[in-house]
Amino acid sequence: MDLVDQEERTLTPSREQRFILDAVENERGNILIQACAGSGKTTTLRMICSALPMNLRVLAVCFNKSTAIEFGHKLPSNVDARTIHSLGCKIIGKSLRVKFSIDNNKPQRILDEYCAGLPDFGWTKEEITSFRKCMLPLLDRVRETMTNPDDRDAVLELAEQFGFDVAESTVAHLPVLLAFNRRERSVISFSDMIDHVVHHELSLPIYDVILIDEAQDLNALQISFLMRLVAVSGARVIAVGDKRQAIYGWRGADSKSMERIKFIFECEEYQLPVCYRCSTAVIHSAQEIVGEDCIRAYQDAPEGLVLNYPPEQLSETMENLEPGDMVLCRTNAPLVSPCLEMIRSGHKAVIRGRDIRKSLFDLIEKIEKTHRGKSLSAFLNGLRAHGLVQIERLDREKKHGALMVFEDLIQTIYDVAQFCDNVQDLKKYIGDVFSEESEGVIFSTIHRAKGLEARTVVILAPELIPHPMVERLGDSASLEQETNLDYVARTRAREILLFQPLRNS
């Protein structure tokens, strides 16, 4: 909870909130609100909804289902609070007028049916396995970014951007698979819920006002969806977000979505720069990244504490943490040893990330095919040999995104293996440690910690921000996201922020 309970401030808006409410009440066009971390964004949205006349049809586009449910309980009855996928599903049901079912396994089923015929064209089992692994995530990114599936170079560039290990020969199959997914309308998947609305140009509902939450996390497909919605209804747009918290470019979000929304809908921009979550010391640390104009401490914020520890302080830093505290890192591997040491000492701790657990299991299974039943040492030798080949290939093919992901997986397995006697132990540790539980001390990558907060936050291995490979490549968009990651990590701390490097500068 923020240091200042926003519920208590609902009837006493801040100076910045009064400016926004005045613009809302006097119908001064479309509005874009830049809201810093902990600035009471949710409360501001509730104020806006209460300020709108009850006869208006209002859509509140929420980032996830839990937020939509929370808004639904708190907002006036004329506000339809839902995720953009939920709205897409509703539109599909009304427009197609056919009975359909939701099956998120649909893309996998279509891919399986497609792959069943590949051996007839001389594909080996290994080639088909590799094709299966990369095609579904690539299909999602092509949809989300609205990349032309027939443009081979654009698709290959997209694959590199998102770290997918894709062979040039497989790209030609993408348009066919996408067409199969779009053609089947009696069954829709999560990805279809927006794509079908935009691609098939379905009939859209009419709204007077469209509120957009977490606007910095929209992708190109979602922005296109909203453009069609506004064009059809002539709705007024009120968007809220924080461009400094745009960190989901790796999964399809448009890192410039706030700027695009402002330009497309000709929005007047307003600021919410006062943070009611963080202590003064934490705010000063965040200002080192974004400047004093982007985020300021509440006038009665506690002083708090920010400390920089030497590498040899690691064990003591971990010992002093309490349940509910968080340890954040740019990558997964550095989290493993301190988390397992904490568990071994009798304390509750988890690493957030069921999807990482699956990727680790997939890699272990691949090595086990040639080393099943052998010792842990032999397994690790096999992992090392496989890793060297893959790293050399990915580096040679300049697939830097895939290389970053693969190196983190390899190192994570090595770090877990230090605590194991055999491969079964290795799999059990990974299964137990990588979880979505929220008890005890929470270890997490920064990406997975967005939206969370804790009294004390440790930034582990701050020397990994920016990621060394991103820094070496020098891509400006990727470097900007790395800076945003640093800002997000620091502003998870309510009172105490600790920097714990693993090596000297």
Shape: globular
How helical, in percent, are the residues?
A: 40-55%
In angstroms, what is the radius of gyration?
24 Å
Q: Find the CATH superfamily of the largest domain.
A: P-loop containing nucleotide triphosphate hydrolases
Q: Could you say what the CATH topology of the largest domain is called? A: Rossmann fold
Q: What is the count of distinct domains?
A: 4
Uncertain stretches of 5 or more adjacent residues: 1-10
Shape-level CATH architecture of the largest domain? 3-Layer(aba) Sandwich
Write the layout of secondary structure elements.
Blueprint: H1 15-25, E1 31-35, H2 41-51, E2 58-62, H3 65-74, E3 79-83, H4 84-96, E4 101-102, H5 106-115, H6 125-145, H7 152-161, H8 168-171, H9 174-183, E5 187-188, H10 192-199, E6 209-212, H11 220-233, E7 236-241, H12 257-264, E8 268-272, E9 274-275, H13 280-290, E10 296-297, E11 305-308, H14 314-319, E12 326-329, H15 333-344, E13 349-352, H16 354-371, H17 376-396, H18 400-417, H19 423-433, E14 434-435, E15 441-445, H20 446-449, E16 454-460, H21 468-473, H22 476-490, E17 493-500
Parallel strand pairs: 1-7, 1-8, 2-3, 2-6, 4-5, 6-7, 9-10, 11-17, 12-15, 12-16, 13-14, 13-15, 16-17
How does this structure look, described?
- With about 500 residues, this protein is an alpha/beta fold.
- It folds into 4 domains: about 15-95 and about 195-270, Rossmann fold; about 100-185; about 280-290 and about 300-355 and about 435-505, P-loop containing nucleotide triphosphate hydrolases (Rossmann fold), CATH 3.40.50; about 355-425.
- The protein is about 50% helix and about 15% strand.
- The protein has 22 helices and 17 strands.
- It has a 7-stranded parallel sheet with strand order 11-17-16-12-15-13-14, sandwiched between helices. Strands 3-2-6-7-1-8 form a 6-stranded parallel sheet, sandwiched between helices. A two-stranded parallel ribbon has the order 4-5.
- Helix 5 (about 105-115) packs across helix 6 and helix 15 (about 335-345) runs parallel beside helix 18 (about 400-415).
- The two termini are about 35 Å apart.
- Its EC number is 5.6.2.4.
- InterPro entries: DNA_helicase_UvrD-like_C, DNA_helicase_UvrD/REP, P-loop_NTPase, UvrD-like_ATP-bd.
- Keywords: ATP-binding, Helicase, Hydrolase, Isomerase, Nucleotide-binding.
- One of its GO terms (biological process) is recombinational repair.
